[in-house]
Amino acid sequence: MALLKFICNECKTVYEELTSADTRPPCPECGSPNIQRYYQGKCYFGGGVAGGSECNKSSCSSCSGCAS
Ligand SMILES: [Zn+2]
Question: With DSSP H G I counted as helix, E B as strand and the rest as coil, what are the percentages for the chain, rounded to 5?
Answer without folding.
Answer: 10, 25, 65
